[in-house]
């Protein structure tokens, strides 16, 4: 009776539109605008908390001396590295609650995130924000007049660190957009010359879903890490400043997030194989003992 009841319930669930919709969404259903709005709002809490935490870590000596300023919104500001990292995590949490097709959203989000970060950095040039190390280089910029400008000593020539970072990030964005085309490019022999052509369309796992988005974030981290060498910040560990150390920690977390699930699946597969082999060996031993006893 129980088997018959279970089978009937299973058939009813299979015909239930809600269950079918859930399965389709889990497999990667269509993208909805209402999900985009909710996920965008979900990014905000992580961005604010991560930005404040990032700023505190960069100026840790000050906040050690002034712990009361940790939660004072009128003092200090927000850092970018952990704002991006925790903003992504809070957005993913909302997407999971909505049962949204996370892999598809991540596939679409990579290039827009890079463009936003790149053009956002270039926009800071208008306010004189983010002047780097003082320099007599041709790349150095300075700001005259009363401003208000967003850097100390704006009239002193200095490397435009924010612009350098913005250009590097936009170069990364261009590379990410061109990578699928370049990977399909092939040179085929034609008479006595090589003729360019296209290989069949192929979905590279490195460029899709969560793996592709993780690669995009890793490339952004590298671009920001390189640009940070032009900052005025004090060195904390060798030639590295505090922001670069935070970037390395986030990069390590990105790498682990991509390698750990595969390793866990591999370990589980090995355990299942060992258990199956042990069960088969025990069954064979019982058969052997029974035949000897008989």
Give an overview in words.
Strand 3 and strand 4 (193-198) form a beta hairpin. It contains nine helices and six strands, in the order H-H-H-H-H-H-E-E-H-E-E-H-E-E-H. Helix 6 (102-123) runs parallel beside helix 8 (209-227). Helix content is 65%, strand content 8%. The chain has 294 residues and is mainly alpha-helical. The two termini are 38 Å apart.
Short description:
With 294 residues, the protein is mainly α. Helices cover 65% and strands 8% of the residues. It is built from nine helices and six strands; from the N terminus they run H-H-H-H-H-H-E-E-H-E-E-H-E-E-H.
Lateral arrangement of strands in the main beta sheet: 1-2
Helical content band? 55-70%
Beta fraction: 5-15%
**Low-confidence parts, pLDDT < 50 over ≥5 residues?**
1-27
* Chain-averaged pLDDT: 80
Number of contiguous helices: 9
Could you state the order of secondary-structure elements as H and E? HHHHHHEEHEEHEEH
Oligomer: single chain
SSE layout and pairings?
Elements: H1 2-15, H2 17-28, H3 33-58, H4 60-65, H5 81-97, H6 102-123, E1 131-134, E2 158-160, H7 161-184, E3 185-190, E4 193-198, H8 209-227, E5 235-237, E6 240-241, H9 242-293
Antiparallel strand pairs: 1-2, 3-4, 5-6
Helix pairs in contact: 3-5, 6-7, 6-8, 7-8, 8-9
Main features:
294 residues; mainly alpha; two-stranded antiparallel sheet; two-stranded antiparallel ribbon; 9 helices; 6 strands; extended
